[in-house]
Amino acid sequence: MQTRILVVDDELSMREFLAILLEGEGYLVEQAENAGEALLHLEREPYDLVVSDVQMPGLSGIQLLGRIKEIAPETAVLLITAYTTAEQAVEAMKLGAYDYIGKPFKVEEVKVLVRKALEKRSLVVENRRLKAVVSERFSFSGLIGKSKQMREVYDLIAKVAESTANVLIMGESGTGKELAAKALHYNSPRRSAPFVAVNCGAIPEALMESELFGHTKGAFTGAISDRVGLFEQAEGGTLFLDEIGELPLQLQAKLLRVLQEREFRRVGGQSSIKADVRIVAASNRNLEEQVEEGTFREDLFYRLNVVPVRMPALRERPEDLIPLVEHFYQKYAPFTPEGEIVTPEAAQALLFYPFPGNVRELENLVERCVVLGNRVLTEECLPPQVRNFKCVNPEKVESTLPPEGMDLQAYLDAIERKLLIQALESSCGVKKKAAALLGMTFRSFRYRLAKFGMDDNS
Predict the structure, then answer these.
(1) Residue 315 per-residue DSSP state
(2) Which of 98, 201, 220, 405 could bridge across to 246 with cysteines, CB 3.0–4.6 Å?
(3) 352-395: per-residue pLDDT in tens?
(4) Residue 85, φ and ψ in degrees, nearest 5
(5) pTM, whole model, 2 decimals?
(6) Which domains, from first to last, does the chain contain?
(7) Where are the alpha helices (DSSP H) in 225-383?
(8) Alpha-carbon dihedral 405, 410, 415, 416, rounded to 10 degrees
């Protein structure tokens, strides 16, 4: 698209001179003899750059600049005048002018300034576009679903995002905990600062402290230079600690100190470094049970669990399943057809299957179907464990292994869910009695109810 420039000057000769000069550089140039006429142009169509005189009848170039920044903030402005003063230059730059040059000027000087003004304008526009893309991707559009459970997650994220409170996201693997963390970050005042994620279970214990806090040269064998840790990388932004339950007890104590004091030291360092970082942690484990077992610090748990967010399992929100399939088809299949994407038979099989791997498993399933060339998701393109899951119907649980195999975890989940229901029915809904019938603690019983979406917190 051709670059559009508007030249504004009450002197016809100057307007035409600048128009000829800029058209010779390949720009599309239009003219206005005063600020009022220029504003009419700007209201009708966008311009990449306005080159304006300062001294004009009616509104001055400085006043025009202020109006341009109100109605077309992405338009670059270059001011030209024969009466240059330091005060005017300062005012123009404060109002957002790219530059301010005095007459008489050199032709090459104008060419260079116009080119640089347009380059800066392009960078600003691209930066805003990328931020909009990131914001859209990681706002609530990254989390798909209109179920009651997901609406509750959206509402909670919206309420918490503006605060600096620590957040603990709980949920099974594959439920979208990192997406929820990104939604928190990109809807918060920290959105323009870094979002840094680390899986606490994926880094060797010996390296975890250096990974989090960094180290100084010579702190240990192999430390040949200073290294910035994740806390420093996330300065001003959000640090997402995934699988926090995997963090060793020794490091839990050091993390607790950072949360309390808002400062830390690099490994081998002598001075403290301030930590302006929001912590969002996540776990697929029951941290309260880990606290009881002594593998997770109780004081750290309460520091992290200021605002708990629970990500529902996919089996708890069946109404979101087909919209998720359609979303993933659009993601992986450029040939996605209009109309039906999932056949009724496939939809029935998907709704019956409990998806122990949750949304991640569903995404992999859809990608597999696309790779195999299926324009529509049919029952035939589903993996065997989904097609054959009828053999683990909770109402007809069998104890023999079918010839085609089965998903053992899904089978056990089906049995567990059925026994939970029977225990609640036998105890007339009294959960402590139901827990006793199953030989487990009340807390463990509540955890299993939550696992299957059966805990109404009553």
Answers:
(1) G
(2) 201
(3) 888 889 999 999 999 998 888 888 888 888 988 888 775 444 44
(4) -130, 155
(5) 0.58
(6) 4-134 (3.40.50.2300), 144-312 (3.40.50.300), 314-387 (1.10.8.60)
(7) 230-233, 249-261, 287-293, 298-304, 321-332, 344-352, 358-371
(8) 150
